[in-house]
Design a protein that fits this description.
Length: about 100
């Protein structure tokens, strides 16, 4: 991919049942799963030669949680997203994660 090229990835969040019910889903991803391809420390270069910059990561929750403002907190406060992923995501389930990445030279 040429530098500056963008890629959009949409996948079920690992806390959603659709991540497990399809036999084509071999890996279950969180909103931090693609961290090793972007903004990674140099010691993790062995994961992939590609390097991307996270343009945007967005988690979509069920309508109830969107209506109550939880989705806003998850998407706008990185520390809250980490707290949600570690402690709350199997109570307040995620539907899917959208990654927008940009290739870096």
């Amino acid at each position: 991919m040429a530098p500056g090229g963008r890629i959009l990835i949409v996948t079920p969040h690992y806390s959603d049942h659709s991540s497990y019910c399809s036999p084509t889903h071999r890996w279950h991803l969180s909103s931090f799963s693609l961290w090793f391809f972007s903004d990674k420390p140099r010691q993790y270069d062995y994961y992939a030669p590609a390097n991307f910059r996270e343009r945007r990561v967005r988690v979509t929750l069920l309508r109830l949680w969107r209506w109550l403002g939880v989705e806003f907190l998850v998407n706008h406060l990185r520390w809250f997203r980490r707290f949600w992923e570690y402690y709350l995501c199997f109570v307040i389930r995620g539907k899917y994660v959208t990654f927008e990445l940009e290739a870096v030279k």
